[in-house]
Write a structure and sequence with these properties.
Layout (H helix, E strand, L loop, with lengths): L4 H12 L6 H10 L6 H10 L6 E3 H10 L6 H13 L4 E3 L7 E3 L7 E4 L4 E4 L25 E4 L22
Parallel strand pairs: 4-6
Antiparallel strand pairs: 1-3, 2-3, 4-5
Helix pairs in contact: 2-3, 4-5
Bound molecules: zinc ion.
The site of zinc ion has 6 residues, from loops.
GO molecular function, one term: zinc ion binding
GO cellular component, one term: cytoplasm
Pfam families: FUR
Length: about 170
């Protein structure tokens, strides 16, 4: 299901206050992935792995780190995301040439991308069927197919004070 932009904005705001993963949990996760659990990596891991799967950019995490009282630079966050990605803890999603988006769900799935908002959403499992793939060049095999479905908003927001028919509070009988 696709959320409308107003709801996604609220969700993003709510995510800043999401619970952080515990320090020992993140340290273990880093060690299991072969990474040394430095203070900065643990701080970023706590923000990333505190809740359900999510999509983030380095800028998102910088804001969340500030909100959580962690003093981290954008460069540190960006480098750490690169290390996490190389270690297989997160996956870089190629949707935007200018900003790198990362997914904490490293499993096979496809994405919606709302370009105007820089927002990445998961396509529900089974939402895309790739029925015919090209034959790869000799000596190569296909490892993964990433589909990005790009979206643009078509319905304007209703004017202030004029609620959509289905969005108002319902009267109780
Ligand atoms: Zn995803």
């Amino acid at each position: 299901m696709l959320l409308v932009p107003e709801e996604t904005r609220k969700r993003l705001l709510a995510e800043r206050a999401l619970p952080r993963a515990s320090e020992p949990e993140v340290e273990q996760r880093l060690k299991d992935a072969g990474l040394r659990p430095t203070r900065q990596r643990v701080a970023i891991g706590r923000l990333l792995f505190g809740s359900a799967h999510r999509h983030v950019t380095a800028d998102d995490l910088l804001q969340e780190a500030n909100f959580a009282g962690e003093m981290l630079s954008l460069a540190t966050i960006y480098n750490t995301l690169g290390h996490f990605s190389e270690a297989g803890l997160i996956r870089r999603i190629s949707v935007d040439d200018e900003r790198a988006h990362f997914d904490t769900d490293t499993g096979n799935h496809h994405h919606f991308y709302i370009e105007a908002e820089g927002l990445v959403l998961d396509v529900a499992p089974g939402g895309i069927a790739v029925e015919r793939l090209p034959t790869p060049p000799e000596g190569y095999e296909i490892t993964r197919v990433d589909v990005v479905v790009r979206l643009t908003q078509v319905q304007p927001e209703p004017p202030a004070g004029q609620a959509m028919p289905d969005s108002g509070p319902r009267s109780l009988r």
